[in-house]
Design brief:
Elements lengths: L1 H67 L24 H6 L34 E4 L10 E5 L2 E3 L2 E2 L3 E5 L5 E3 L8 E5 L4 E4 L2 H9 L5 E5 L1
Antiparallel strand pairs: 1-2, 1-9, 2-7, 3-4, 3-6, 5-9, 7-8
C-alpha cells in the first residue's frame, strides 16, 4: 500500500516537472520571438551603415582622383592619362574603380556588406563580380543634381536596371530591388550628399532638385 502511494507521489511530481518545463519552453519561445526580430533588424541596420561608410569612401576617392586629374573622373580620361574612358562601351565597371586604386582604402570597400559578392584580395584581381556599386559616367565636379555612385540593384520607374551601360533619364523614379537593403538603397550625389532611397526625404529632394539625365555603369 505504501509503495502505491509513493508511486502516485512520484507521478504527480513528474507531471509538475513536465508542466514547469513546458512553461519554460513556451516562455523562451515567446522571448525568442521578441529577440530574434530585434537582432535581425540590428544586423540589417549595421550592414546599411557600413554600406554608407563604404560609399562615402568611394565618393571621397572619386573626388581625390578628380582633383589630381584636372577635375575629371575616370570615365572622362583615356587610359594613357590614368582614366578608363576606352572601357565605357564594354560596360566594364571594374576598370573605372581600378583607375582609383590609389584613392580607395582597399578592394573590400567596393563590397556592400548585404551583398553576397566576394571582395577581391588585391586591386589587380578586381572584376565586376567583386563590386557592389554602380558608377556615373557623366558626373562632373561641382555639378549638382546628378548621381555619382550607389548600390548596384537600381530600379528606374519601377523596372530593374540591367548590369552594364544604362541611361537614367531626367526625373526618373529611382528605386531599388529587394536584393540588398529590403527594397531601399544608398546613393551619393556629386555634391557629396548621401541619400537613402526611396524615402520621403529623397523623394522631396528629387522634386526640388530634378536629376539630370546620366549614363551609368552597373557591375
Amino acid at each position: 500500500m505504501e509503495f502505491k502511494l509513493q508511486g502516485r507521489r512520484d507521478c504527480a511530481f513528474k507531471l509538475i516537472e513536465l508542466f514547469v518545463v513546458l512553461a519554460v519552453i513556451v516562455a523562451l519561445a515567446g522571448l525568442a520571438g521578441l529577440i530574434l526580430p530585434a537582432v535581425a533588424l540590428a544586423r540589417y541596420k549595421s550592414k546599411r551603415v557600413q554600406c554608407l561608410n563604404n560609399l562615402k569612401q568611394v565618393g571621397i576617392g572619386l573626388r581625390i582622383f578628380a582633383e589630381d586629374h584636372s577635375n575629371k573622373y575616370p570615365a572622362q580620361l583615356g587610359a594613357a592619362f590614368g582614366g578608363a574612358q576606352e572601357f565605357v562601351r564594354q560596360g566594364e565597371v571594374f576598370k573605372h574603380f581600378l583607375a582609383m586604386s590609389n584613392t580607395i582604402p582597399a578592394p573590400k570597400t567596393l563590397i556592400c556588406p548585404a551583398d553576397n559578392r566576394k571582395s577581391a584580395t588585391l586591386f589587380g584581381d578586381l572584376k565586376d563580380g567583386n563590386i557592389s556599386y554602380f558608377i556615373s559616367l557623366d558626373a562632373k565636379v561641382d555639378q549638382t543634381g546628378i548621381l555619382l555612385t550607389g548600390d548596384r540593384n537600381l530600379t528606374s520607374d519601377g523596372t530593374p536596371v540591367n548590369p552594364g551601360l544604362s541611361v537614367l533619364k531626367t526625373n526618373s523614379a529611382i528605386g531599388f530591388t529587394r536584393q540588398l537593403h529590403r527594397g531601399s538603397g544608398n546613393l551619393i550625389l556629386e555634391d557629396g550628399s548621401l541619400w537613402y532611397a526611396p524615402d520621403k526625404t529623397f523623394e522631396e529632394h528629387l522634386r526640388q532638385h530634378p536629376m539630370d539625365s546620366s549614363r551609368i555603369l552597373i557591375p
